[in-house]
Amino acid sequence: MDQANIQSDFFFDIVKGKYTLKGTVKKIEEYEAQYGKDFFADYDVKKKDKPWDIDYLNELESQGIAGMASKQFFIHVAEVSEYVHNNMKKKKHKKFLLMISAAVVAIIGVVVIIISKNS
């Protein structure tokens, strides 16, 4: 596989949340050890301030597709991806807990109605 394909696969794995920020930095170091320090371009990236959301991650993904490939860009994408995916997991967890709570309240309500009818 050539450099462009390796970087592309790595980039999309970062966007999907397969790599944490730490994992991304480690993988970059591995690629640089294997392919040389110039495997990734070296230029700064314009960053938005937190809070980050899925729209910003999608914006970064578009920039990556358009050819952004610096080490700093990959690290920033990993940082944003980790932040966004963690927030998405928390929201899903909260929704799940709310659904469970609602179900428990409904069951208790049914039990109270049945008990009151039988009394």
Largest sheet: none
Dominant shape: elongated
Succession of helices and strands: HHHH
Gyration radius, rounded: 23 Å
How many distinct helices?
4
Helix/strand/pairing category: mainly alpha
Please indicate the percent range of residues in DSSP E strands (runs of 2 or more): under 5%
Distance between the termini: 75 Å
Low-pLDDT runs: none
Number of strands: 0
Mean pLDDT: 85
Helix content: over 70%
Oligomeric state: single chain
Can you give me a brief rundown of this structure?
This protein has 119 residues and is an all-alpha fold.
Provide an overview of this structure.
This protein is mostly helical and 119 residues long. It has a domain at 3-84. The protein is 74% helix and 0% strand. It has four helices and no strands. It has helices at residues 3-15, 21-35, 54-65, 71-118. α1 packs antiparallel against α3, α2 (21-35) runs antiparallel to α4 (71-118) and α3 (54-65) runs antiparallel to α4. The chain is elongated and about 80 Å long. It starts with a helix and ends with a helix. 15% of the residues are buried. The mean pLDDT is 85.
